[in-house]
Amino acid sequence: MMNKQKIMFLALFVLYPALLFSGNDISVDVILSNLKRIYAEAHSSNEAWERLAVLCDDYGPRLSGSQNLEKAIDWLQGMLIKDGFDSVWTEPVMVPKWVRIHEECKLVYPRSKAVPVLAFGGSVSTPPNGISAEVLVVDNFDELESNREKVKGKIVVFNPPYENYGKTVQYRWIGAVRAAQYGAVAALCRAVSPLSMNNPHTGVMNYEDSVLKIPFASISEEDALLLKRFQKRGITPKIFLNIQTADSGKSPSRNLIAEIRGSVYPSEIIAFGGHIDSWDVGSGAQDDGAGCIASWQALKIIKTLGIRPKRTLRLVFWVNEENGLEGGKKYAELHKHENHRLMFEFDSGVFPPSWIGFSGPDSIWEKVQPFEGFLQKFYPDVKIQQGGGGVDISPMTKLGFPGASLGTDDGGKYFWYHHSHTDTPDKVNPEDLNNCSAVIAMFIYLFSELI
Ligand SMILES: [Zn+2]
User: Fold this and answer.
1) What is the pTM of this model?
2) Within this chain, do residues 306 and 369 fall inside the same structural domain, yes or no?
3) Which of 20, 51, 101, 290 could make an S-S bridge to 350, C-beta 3.0–4.6 Å?
4) 242, 281, 212: which is closest to 102 by C-alpha?
């Protein structure tokens, strides 16, 4: 009996004559042979992982506005030039500069205990000597509403159980505004993560001009649950909180770009990459150092193999995805008049590759979908499906350019590390990184040759 792989492969020969007929002069044999070479090259070393380790270890976390980020971009630019791509350049972007200076959180009643804390990006400071206040724990916004008479003068602790990132992150995004509306002096939020080892997770938050800005920070799930248990037993816990941050306006940074120019249609661009900035804790390994390195390695594999793609392959390291999207917006401003056939982003963590999502016109989708047969020769479980995109490429996809992204099978682990001290290169498996690099290289190669 024929297995699924064989059926898919035979289907290629039924589907691809249509593509060959529609103006493609490249044979299935040539494509398959290049895909095999890409796979072999991707697995010939752990160079990608070694580069990730240097990026993370030598330069550290890469928050927008930091020296770390600018030094990391300088190093990457030098390395891209060394790789010998057709062109390598940077484009200036003004990014927000917010700095974490000092933070301390302690339970002071009913007993003394240190509480690990991480201010959310953009949080204002407490008074210089900190504040001490009673705590009110709420599991959700409904509970806040029904207890709004009790909020004044307190530190509100949001304790939402993790459902999924998109749903639970709303507490981090608007929690400070909601608590301040009823007179809270500060707010804390349980880490937005499916697993806690007593670690808080930072991330971007929002204020509204019409509502007093109060300090807002993450605490661990363990501490949020401890406070909740006290409250349930009729005890009102008291917390001391000292957060000192600085908002220094805007600071110059750069998007970093490298290209292999198309041999037949150089003005047709396939842009792909990740965001080079990170939060200021851990070292931004999974978010999104590894996404950048996998994309870079994909371009390097194609260059090393001497493949001349028909269309221009443009690697982009966008800046400031985490707290402003200024890199993505600037890219769209400068490049929206160019003929982008595809915007591709990898920012979902490096784990075994699982799917490529595509959003774009049906006429292109019909050509992209059969790529699955090619990819499954090497990765039988990787699917090509509808619906793809990313934050950095959103200013371009909103203008109507097709978007795509690589998804991985992380088993929920990505958000264990995301935006925390634990996001370090040891969380990235070298073999997964090689596989993600290979899948990106294969996909952009197929797109370049067959669209
Ligand atoms: Zn990210």
Assistant:
1) 0.94
2) yes
3) 290
4) 242
